[in-house]
Design brief:
Largest interface: A-B, 30 and 24 residues
Radius of gyration of chain B: 13 Å
Number of helices of chain B: 0
Structural class of chain A: mainly beta
Strand order of the largest sheet of chain B: 1-9-8-3-4
Radius of gyration of chain A: 13 Å
Structural class of chain B: mainly beta
Number of helices of chain A: 0
Helix content of chain A: under 10%
Distance between the termini of chain A: 31 Å
Shape of chain B: globular
Oligomer: heterodimer
Largest sheet of chain B: 5 strands, mixed
Number of strands of chain B: 9
Strand content of chain B: over 45%
Largest sheet of chain A: 7 strands, mixed
Chain lengths: 114, 112
């Protein structure tokens, strides 16, 4: 266990559905991240939040909408997704407002878009 | 793009040392070398990091060449549970908030 939990672990949705992914960290960290890992591709950074403020949006399509209500919780709201959005979505957290610190990853949500 | 080059895959016999190389010839003076691994269908796991001195922890050792253009991650006694993709990443320590750039990594297969 890394102290970062993600729910659900698996999700199947149609292209017209709206769903949300949840991430929670129990480590007291102040930065949280969303990554996407498609089949046979490297992990791609999507969003970064620091003290609830979004500090990075890596040119992610608007059908992905992040929300960070507090430093312990991070959501990824999904709507009108495409089949190519099927992937493993990973959440991570780390401590520190500046500089790099080790990131702790959750187990991921395996998303399938039909 | 990732700033590192790693072999696509490696095999290692169980109980033997696994030595995973990484080239980072364009590394800057303020960039650290970090290693993560990802066991199948799980999130990446931090292993170790270093700047220029060799480092050791309970999981692995990191050997960085004197010119810092390459490094080797050593798992001293590999087990079947060490089968994973290993990522070598260079990143500025003290720079912008930890934006890891993952490459394709090395798929290590530990065999009985």
């Amino acid at each position: 266990e890394t102290g970062v939990t993600q729910t659900p672990r698996h999700l199947v949705m149609g292209m017209t559905n709206k769903k949300s992914l949840k991430c929670e960290q129990h480590l007291g960290h102040n930065a949280m991240y969303w990554y996407k890992q498609s089949a046979k591709k490297p992990l791609e950074l999507m969003f970064v939040y620091n003290f609830k403020e979004q500090t990075e949006n890596n040119s992610v399509p608007s059908r992905f909408s992040p929300e960070c209500p507090n430093s312990s919780h991070l959501f990824l709201h999904l709507h009108t997704l495409q089949p190519e959005d099927s992937a493993l979505y990973l959440c991570a957290s780390c401590q520190g407002t500046s500089g790099y610190n080790e990131q702790f990853f959750g187990p991921g949500t395996r998303l399938t878009v039909l | 793009d990732a700033k590192t080059t790693q072999p696509t895959s490696m095999d290692c016999a169980e109980g033997r040392a696994a030595n995973l190389p990484c080239n980072h010839s364009t590394i800057s003076g303020n960039e650290y070398v970090y290693w993560y691994r990802q066991i199948h269908s799980q999130g990446p796991q931090y292993i170790i990091h270093g700047l220029k001195n060799n480092e050791t922890n309970e999981m692995a050792s990191l050997i960085i060449t004197e010119d810092r253009k390459s490094s080797t991650l050593i798992l001293p006694h590999a087990t079947l549970r060490d089968t994973a993709v290993y990522y070598c990443i260079v990143i500025v320590y003290g720079g912008s908030q930890g934006n890891l750039i993952f490459g394709k990594g090395t798929k290590l297969s530990v065999k009985p």
